[in-house]
């Protein structure tokens, strides 16, 4: 399943990042690596998500959340 399909309150694990090399490197720098656990703090109907990872929170847009595979 892709991250865009996760619901608020769910905890998911990153399986793969289907992004460009540059974007993958940026996501790795943020701690978003395969095997990392993410908590979906809020998921809007338009697809933007607020996620919790480690001790931080950040927002990702729908286009990007469709490229992140999770389980």
Describe the structure using short key phrases:
SH3 type barrels; five-stranded antiparallel beta sheet; 2 helices; 71 residues; globular; 18% helix; alpha+beta
Shape: globular
Mean pLDDT: 94
Strand content: 35-45%
Low-confidence stretches: none
CATH architecture: Roll
Q: What class would the helix/strand composition place it in?
A: alpha+beta
Description:
The structure is a single chain. This protein is an alpha+beta fold. It has a single domain, classed as Ferrous iron transport protein A (FeoA) (SH3 type barrels). 18% of the residues lie in helices and 38% in strands. The chain is built from two helices and five strands. Strands 4-3-2-1-5 form a five-stranded antiparallel sheet. Strand 3 (49-53) and strand 4 form a beta hairpin. The radius of gyration is 11 Å and the shape is globular. The mean pLDDT is 94.
Task: Please give the structural blueprint.
Elements: E1 11-17, H1 21-29, E2 37-43, E3 49-53, E4 56-60, H2 62-65, E5 68-70
Antiparallel strand pairs: 1-2, 1-5, 2-3, 3-4
